[in-house]
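pinned: reference chain
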Amino acid sequence: MQTGVKHRYRAPDLAAFPADGRRYEIIEGALEVAPSPRTIHQLVSVRLVAALARFTAVAGGHVFHAPFDVHLAEDTVVQPDLLYLAPEHLDRIRDDGVHGPPDLVVEILSPTSRRWDLREKRAAYARHGVREYWLVDPDARTIAVLQNVGGRFAGTTYAAGDTARSPAVLEGFALDVDATLA
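pinned: its structure tokens
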């Protein structure tokens, strides 16, 4: 190995990492390892999965939660906290995860993942065509609902007392911020 040359990880490399409760992700060959999520993260995740599962029971599509690989490219494999695939994109589901962009990705921010979720993952999701990106912040008690417009995310941040709504992907879906982040 040459001095100053970083190892560039690819999808097959992920199989070599231990099943130790940590999250292993790669974006453009760079590895990120995150510890197990906090309790509030898990509580919020369960509430979101339940709400999205109720929605998909009527509207169709599938919702998945971490750990679940999303292959955006050979050198970009991530594990969003939650993701949704619309009925017309169910062909992206494979035995080893989703291949291609989900219609919706939800990340629940925590102190250990905040930078990665707000910068690297956000840029990767926009670049690879994720239509909506939700950033759920249990500490700030907000949900940012962002839509991909020309390869960049823009949208609305909902706070206590608000009802978050999907502008494009989940027609008719409404999420009570207080109940979700309680």
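why pinned: The radius of gyration is 16 Å. The helical segments are 39-59, 114-127, 177-181.
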